[in-house]
Here is the input.
Amino acid sequence: MMKATMENSPITTLDPETLRAAMRAWSAGVTVVTAVHDGQRHGMTVNSFTSISLDPAMITISLQTGSRTRELVSSSRTFGLTILSTEQADISDIFAGRKDAEDRFADVQTETLVTGAPLIVGGLAWLDCRVVESIGAGMNTLFVAEVLAARGTGEGNPLLYHNRSYWGLSPLK
Here is the structure.
């Protein structure tokens, strides 16, 4: 382990593999974040997404520094977020880079709302966002964004990710 200081307080940097193993216990919904800039579009599967305010409508996402999607979001200052359904595990794999696809959008039907960012048809919900702040956070960039448009009813079965596998949801009774 490596020691570092932050604001005069010693912190310990945990081995990434140890943290990755522990985080497998955390279940998360699966989203795809997409962006377009100067005719280029790209997207990636993301589970680091949080609603932070209803008024004003704001969310955060975290994208790996150096990824094509992160670069497009930084340049365009906009992005789309699609919350995937259980029927879209293959789409998640494509946008996660687990399946070879020169163009990740090749067999994916999309639509747009306000910003022009592509949103994936068949998702449970869609958020069209404008970046209001970017914060460097380790190997990632945290984007704070205003939600300009949203669609979705909460109906349907969300795609979940837990312990390196996809899951569906069933209510507890």
